[in-house]
Amino acid sequence: MTDPSSLPQRVHVLGASGSGTSTFGRAWAERFGHLHLDTDDFYWLPTEPRFLEKRPMPERLRLLTEAVDAAERWVLTGSLVSWGEPLVERFDLVVFVYTPFDLRMDRLIAREEERYGAEALQPGGAHYDAHMAFIEWAASYDTAGLETRSRRAHETWMARLPCPVIRVSGTDTTARQIEQVAGSVRKLDAR
Question: Taking the complete model, does pTM exceed 0.70, yes or no?
Answer without folding.
Answer: yes
